[in-house]
Design brief:
Radius of gyration: 24 Å
Largest sheet: none
Number of strands: 0
Length: 176
């Protein structure tokens, strides 16, 4: 399944999750999806994004133990359905939204719990989400820079600090 569709499904599931276990499961799903998108871009994406994409995948691996999360049914890992990232910039923008929403949901869980273990689990996941968002935004900036470079008119040749001087050369040649 295409990345944008999976991300939209994740955002919908996160928005509809009720209760701490469901919110936690959806936050893990978001991290797993970010890991899968990062892995896909590291292998098949634009060359200038591969390092950041690999970093995204590794960051999400640290913050996501989705395969072992008790609320995720066997075979229910949404990220396992990822087949392609058709529109890189749109997928990354949508992924940043999903991760941001997951981070906010985790803050809500952390603030509402009295269980110390759950609190610290949320804090670690929030840190991983923040780092993931940073990496996604870095990739979006690279894509925007690349787009600006493509749209920039070719530079004129330079012939000194003010560029090439065009126009009549009469005064320089001694003619009025």
């Amino acid at each position: 399944m295409e990345a944008e569709r999976l991300i939209a499904a994740g955002r919908s599931a996160l928005a509809g999750s009720r209760g701490v276990p469901a919110v936690m499961a959806e936050a893990w799903q978001a991290q797993a999806l970010a890991r899968a998108v990062g892995g896909q871009l590291a292998r098949y994406g634009p060359a200038e994004l591969r390092t950041d994409a690999r970093g995204l995948s590794e960051t999400c691996a640290l913050g996501s133990a989705v395969l072992h999360h008790p609320m995720v049914p066997a075979g229910g890992v949404r990220a396992s359905q990822l087949t392609e990232v058709a529109h890189v910039a749109r997928a990354l923008a949508a992924l940043a939204l999903l991760l941001g929403e997951a981070g906010i949901a985790l803050v809500g869980v952390a603030c509402g719990t009295e269980e110390e273990g759950l609190y610290w689990q949320c804090i670690e996941s929030i840190d991983a989400v923040d780092e993931s968002v940073d990496r996604v935004q870095s990739m979006l900036r690279r894509l925007a820079e690349q787009e600006r470079e493509r749209d920039r008119p070719p530079e004129r040749e330079r012939d000194g600090p003010f560029g090439v001087v065009h126009g009549p050369a009469g005064f320089v040649a001694g003619q009025p």
